[in-house]
Amino acid sequence: MTEIRGPIEAILFVAESPVTTQELAEVVEAPVDDVEAILAAIERELSDRRSGILLRGVAGGWRFYTAADMLPYLERFAS
Predict the structure, then answer these.
(1) 31-47, pLDDT tens digit by residue?
(2) I need a labelling partner for 19 at 20 to 30 A (CA). Which of 25, 26, 33, 75 fits?
(3) CA distance linking residue 73 with residue 1, whole number of Å
């Protein structure tokens, strides 16, 4: 199952809109249950280590977001 984690992360990184679990499963050619387990693991790991990015389920799909407490750094970077 770990062999599909990288492709899932890559897809979510470039996605401009939320990607459904079913779409991810089709692309990586894996069972939906395996994809759901990986998504849950990524979501938990990012949260546990207080990452600057988060994985969130939104609008029926999944997408990476910037953590809200990173906003001051992003504002400084953009100025």
Answers:
(1) 999 999 999 999 999 99
(2) 75
(3) 35
